[in-house]
Amino acid sequence: SFASRRLSSHKGPHQRRFVAPPACSIARMESRLQAPDTAALPAMSGRGWLESEEQLPTEATAVVPPHGLEPSPSSSSTARPPAPPVPSGGAGWPVAPPLPEGLLQSQSSSGYARPPPPPVPNSSAASWLGLEAEPEDARPSAPPGLAAPNGCAASSAAAAEVEEEDEENEEEEEVRQAKPKKLLFEPYLDKEAVARGLADGSFFRGTLVASSSKLGTAHVKPLGAKPNDRDFIIKGKSARNRAFHGDVVIVKLLAEGEFGHRTIRKGGGKGGGRGGAVEDDDDDEDEEDVDRRKMPALVENSDSEDEVVNLGALRRAVGTSTDKAPQERSGGSTGGFAKVVAIDDPKGAQRVIVCTLHPNERNGGVGAACVVKETDTLLRAMPTDKRMPWLLIQVNDVTRKVLNLPGKLDPYTMWPVQMIGWKETSSLPLGRLKGQCLGQAGDLDAEERHALIEHQLDEHEAEFKDDLLDEVNDLVKESQRNFESEVLKRNDLRQKRIFTIDPATARDLDDAIHVDFDRERQEVEVGVHIADVGHFVQLGSKADKEAQFRTTSVYLINRVLPMLPHALCNHLCSLNPNEPKLAFSAFFRLSLETGELIETGPYKPWFQKTAICSVCRLNYDEVQDVLDGKEIDKPTVYAGYTWEQIKEDIFLLYDVCGKVRRGRFEGGALSISKKKMIFHTRESEDGIPTGYHLEHHSASHWIIEELMLLANKCVAKHMANGVLSDVSVLRNHAAPDPAKAEVLSKMMKENLGLTEWEAGNAGAIYRSCQAIYRQYGEMLGLCVEMMTMRAGMKQATYFVYDDEADAHHFALDFDYYTHFTSPIRRYPDVMVHRVLAAVLCGEQEGFQQREEAQEQVLGCNEKKVASRRCQEQLDRAVFCIFLRSKKSWFYTVGTVLAFHQDADSNEKGKANDAITVYCSQLGKETKAFLRAGDGAVADLEKLGLFCNGVDDTLMLPDNWRFCSRGLVELEWLPPDGDKTRRRRQTLQTLSCVPIVIIPTNTVPIDYALFFVSPFHAKGEEVSRDVPDLAVQGFSWNEVEEDGVEVVHDALAAPVAA
After folding, report:
1. Contact (CB, 8 A) for 513 and 526
2. What are phi and psi of 768, to 5 degrees?
3. Pairing outcome for strands 203-210 and 217-222
4. pLDDT (tens digit, 9 = 90+) per residue, 667-711?
5. How many CA atoms lie within 13 A of 695 on its CB side?
6. How far apart are alpha carbons 582 and 579 in whole angstroms?
7. Distance, CA of 62 to CA of 573 (rounded, Å)
8. Are 158 and 413 in contact, with CB atoms under 8 Å apart?
9. 727-768 per-position pLDDT tens digit
10. Model's pTM, two decimal places?
11. Is the dihedral angle over the CA atoms 988, 992, 997, 1003 positive or is it negative?
């Protein structure tokens, strides 16, 4: 063990001593670590961020403390570990242990899916670190459990063995600290300086969001900024100053002269001397050019969720120059270029990052060369999330045992890694392994765990604690004993004809409905009955505290990570048929003639605690078959009711809800369609889907949707106008950013000639999108809706209401809206139930007070977004796994969004020429790189595509020509290469054309997108139903105005025949 050996070096004036901690006790190590009073968190570099290279001295600046493996945070079912500590300096800001100098040298290209990280000298690593090399026999042999090199199966046992051994060893080690070196980053300001800057308005606090498509750029929205205020732009690694994606940072707006090249000197002048210097050597070249030169061998997928990045693409589409100052481009009251001066909360740096491990060599240790040698002292961890920096992991006894080193590393195995520090004199942060390996990329379990960790949802996978389960079991028994006495306090509706409509696979049924027809008034009374979760989960209970942390259920491919224990969500609270249940009910009346909600008089909406008993369980497919006149297997109906009565209720609801829906859209509401894949896993033995279908939003779905919307709307209005409005949780959706929405409108009208496009309000956007559907078909309609969502459309969020808040929901066009109808899987609904119950009973307790509620909804908003993105990432990964299992590729229709001609050359076959295409089924746009095939047939192995057992051929264009700003011509040859049969294919903006999706052999599993040759049989098959106008696309019209930059010359030389 490294903790039991003594390392020594020549004693000198910079020498210091410390006690080496156990490898798995970083907190104990940090308590002994003597660090300077400056903090450290990362800046942009290669795989994620590296923009330029430094030639650094090779002497050590300070010791690299030994660290190793810590238990996985989700491996225990008993306790959630606290957020990992960050070393703290005297100023109170987080600081990091020092890193060795001389880390960065120039990169070399690689065929691996990610660009190789910078090398570190390994030949004399011990002396380079200021340590004596240990003798060969001092290193432990590989443990018996690690027979297979670097195997995941043995990592847990090895980690446990190392942890047990390290707990017994705590001896002092001697190390030498080198003289101070050049500062690569500015030291962070202390708390007092930050407080002064925030007070006088020169500093701003906000969360740093890194771009995954512009690797040198990050954005910070100041805390308290108005919805349409512009973000601050953090450009370059020096300005980012070691901040991780997700960190809460303190930023300072840069003066005009500071943008671009800048040099900050202190102490020793130009040479730096002993005082050190900070030099910003950011490249001054266009970042897109840098991006293109660093594109991987296959394809760079854009970040579909990054609204700012996609807006940039739209700006470039209308020709806006990138040289304007950010304030001129944004038009908002804030914004501009800024730099990070301190870290307020290292939320991003503290997170676990999924990485692959590689030798720290110039070529990245790819393939057969991925071997760690006996003399290596550092490993390189390359994050799968390119917004994160590379990390260095020390090779010590812990990592040797866990990884079975020296030996070969598997570059396709994913590991959880955590940053432990980053000095301002170091180019890369230091990290450590943080649990068991996840498995190989492309493995279903590994990709699932990867998605959970990537979105910080892995702790949801932990089992509920025993004391919580004991509490819930006691609650269930007590509720069963006291059920009848509780019913006496409620409106007993157990004899009412109440039923449920849910997905066929649903287990937690949290809503039920009933419908009655008042013939005299020609009104329909609807009751929406919701599981009374708030009655069972009392504020402050163990179950409640766990639900506050989770905030939402997470839906994976074939399982659910529930917010509440199964005894609650699947049994006690679930509204199962023929089981008496406690509910919270909302009642309202609708005009049968118009579908209008009755909001005044004696029949205005009302709310009650009730007891119900569902008489029938239906699923969406069954209800749709009934509406379509198809015969189905009659479901069981209880309590003396008949199937015919249930069918009458269904048709009555279909009639009135159709009028409600029509009136809502005519009144100004917006609906965005989205393709969602439903995977079939019921018959699967290994969890890999046997098939899938696309979810269809049929009438059976929108019946329930309209009823839930009405219930939520009625509850929200009642709470906002009630005595407890200041603690009421509502949900709002802000109007789109006007500047960003204007960019889209300008492009649609002026550049593409869609003069009928209107986007003044939600209703106008909806009507414009529907017109696209009718004229150009589904594929183009889905793409335009996606563009609309990206062009300044905000995310709906939870908030605690006050009189000055804008509660309007833009998309729904409701003055007030909340979530009341899903308390089993959403914590905000539980909060709403508690406040509504207090309003009805005239109580002032049993709910979270305002400040506590405000803090809670922030967590709910974050977890909701994380859960959605996790599901989307997992859907795409599982789809690729499904294609691999079927040994097939996927053919569909994609929509052309943008053209990218390499700025350096117009040579035929230039590898960085690309066309961005949107695939609606995957919900993501992807760059399709144009590559010339050898005899028109691609070399699949060279491109890194999955082809094992696939009976198919990828045909690539023989040539292409960028004719104008929005026009490219592809030339195709038949498989036999006969040039007399060549065909030309014209692609314009928004052309809908056949594409093929091919899984890749990358980490994590991904896909590449290619155009389908007109000589391929699948081309005509998949595009048969696409209207000709959609295939043709739109001619791009240049608009003469200041700042326009014409990218492609319309008079370019024609392609040789």
Report:
1. yes
2. -65, -45
3. antiparallel
4. 999 888 777 888 998 888 888 999 998 888 899 999 999 999 999
5. 16
6. 10
7. 58
8. no
9. 999 999 999 888 888 888 988 998 899 888 998 889 999 999
10. 0.77
11. positive
